[in-house]
Amino acid sequence: MGGRETHGAKIDFRLTVPLLAKAIGVSGANAKTVVFIYIIQSALLIPFLFVLIKLLLQHLSRSSVLPIVLGISTIYLAKAFIWDYDFWFDGFAYFFLLLGLYFQNRMAIFLTLTLACWTDERSVIALSSIFLFHLLSENNFNIRSVKGFWSTARWVGHRSNIVLLVAISYLASRFFLSDRFGLHTPTGEGSGVELSLIPYQLKHRLAGIFLSFEGLWILFLIAIAQLLRRGETLLALAIASIMLIHIVIAYSVFDITRSMTYGFPLMILAAIIIQKHEFTVSKDIYRGASLICMLLPTQYLIFFPRQIPWTVCSYNQLEPVIRGLFF
């Protein structure tokens, strides 16, 4: 464990990556072990984009998929797989969350989302948007009432309830580990995880909200506006509330971009909502959002914005990685 304010103090419940390393026979806390896991994460970017394309093709036209994938490829969500020289391994969590969106097999959903939660606890917040995605897909993206959200007869035998089971099982297991082994995530004053940070962060780092998803915010805002215009107020409030929770969590810690990016399922959901409602200019919206993402340099915000360069231009960050691998 690390000190109270360190990253090491907050990883007691982030068990997926260490267990993965053990499962593939990579053991020890040496630099080569960490770099090997980093290489695996970097390689996961290709299947991540492949699964993303397959998921979008299930709901969108082919001509709409390309700009969305290009946009996502140029924001932090995709770059986190490779630009992770501090070895946070969020790429694993993002990949497992995407698989949880894509899979329709209930066991596969349970497994991948469980792995995501044990990679980083911020995945638990993302479960709410994934639950909403599966619930909507089971109802042809048309839920107008509270009954549609909570009618037991409609979802008890469907895949959406598996997402709730993941949340319950994770929280129960976490409580058990806390009680049995004294594991905990530090919170409160001096821990770097505290609600009192929010006013200061919003005052000095408000741009972090936009920088996390850049042009994709256009999709989110248009989807909300479209739902309100169609009288689907409950769904609009649900989506907006989930995003608000992501913002609160992100601004109660210092690594704003990392935390905000766990809300990416909402951006995918927004893109689908726009086209499901037969919005006549949806393709132009996708292209415009993608263009903004491609034109803006990716900024990672922790304390201050840090522009993410091409990997070949990142020697200062790569040098300790190379040293750990070969020396």
Give an overview of the whole structure.
It is built from 19 helices and 2 strands. It has 327 residues and is mainly α. The protein has one domain (7-326). It has a two-stranded antiparallel ribbon with strand order 1-2. A hairpin with a 1-residue loop joins strand 1 and strand 2 (304-307). The longest helix is centred in the middle third of the chain and has 22 residues, at 160-181. It is globular, with a radius of gyration of 20 Å. 37% of the residues are buried.
Specify the biggest β-sheet: 2 strands, antiparallel
Q: Summarize model confidence as the mean pLDDT.
A: 85
Given as residue ranges, the uncertain stretches (5+ residues, pLDDT < 50) are: 1-8
Indicate how many domains the architecture comprises.
1
- C-alpha-based Rg, rounded: 20 Å
Structural class: mainly alpha
The helicity comes to 55-70%
Order of helices and strands: HHHHHHHHHHHHHHHHHHEEH
Overall form: globular
Total number of helices: 19
Number of strands: 2
First-residue to last-residue Cα separation: 26 Å
Major sheet strand order: 1-2
Beta-strand percent range: under 5%
List the helices and strands and how they pair.
Layout: H1 16-23, H2 31-43, H3 45-57, H4 62-73, H5 76-79, H6 90-102, H7 106-117, H8 123-138, H9 146-150, H10 152-155, H11 160-181, H12 197-204, H13 207-213, H14 216-229, H15 233-251, H16 256-261, H17 264-276, H18 282-295, E1 299-302, E2 304-307, H19 315-326
Antiparallel strand pairs: 1-2
